[in-house]
Amino acid sequence: MNCSAIAFVRAAWPVCLAISMLLVVAAPIPAETLGQLADAEARLQYAFLTADMRAVEQVLEEIEHYTPAESVAPLKAYQLAYGHWTLAQLHAQAARDGRRESAGMGTKAARRCVQHARTARMLNPRMAEAYALEAVCNGMPRSFLRLGALRGSCSRSRLLRTALSLEPQNPRVLLIDAMCNTSADEAANLARWHGVVEAFGQRLSRSGIPGWGEPEALVMLGEHHLRRGELLAAREAIERALLLAPDYRAARELIEALAARSQ
What we know:
The structure is a single chain. This protein is mainly alpha-helical. It has helices at residues 19-22, 31-49, 53-64, 73-96, 101-123, 128-139, 158-166, 171-180, 186-207, 214-227, 231-244, 249-262. The longest helix is centred in the first third of the chain and has 24 residues, at 73-96. It is globular, with a radius of gyration of 17 Å.
């Protein structure tokens, strides 16, 4: 298994990030396929965290050409959904930075995410994260914000409710739920993101397999502390994100914002 793309991950973690999603499949998976999928998710996450849209597109092209066994088809669809979600978020940020063509490309990526997430959950109706991905990508074309905060566009989604009913403690489902349920009440938002971060910690203590989402959750927690003027708490959360992903662009930008406010 090639884990070079995730050198940013703490050395104590014994396996690649991608294996976490493989736990939803009961059938045995060939080692070669396992390695391909693990490497692909690791590279997708790294490309997203470093805001490298071209790298995301390249990995998605590779996954499209995978021809896995029938038992692995839900995982391929899930990975494609996750990859297109990350691509949609990166295009949304580029559109806000003035790159007009990214608005349409982001909407297209979100729609592809919906298609692949729907395929994944139809192939495996117990795959909670596929329901959550479909819900959040359904909301994105109507309300692009940097890392989430969709303000009701997916909070009422039946798909999200299904994801929560299937795996109420899944940290990635909780992360998407927090993105979809951002409100004007900053105290409530802060409590929600503390819960997401805690869920990642509990999952890691039980399985040792973090999967994608923990650095993003820590950055969102840091952002909400920063909005409340809680600079020390914000720095602690963001520095924890950078321990997991030293090249995480959003975390580095927030550290710079903190430094500016401290002067």
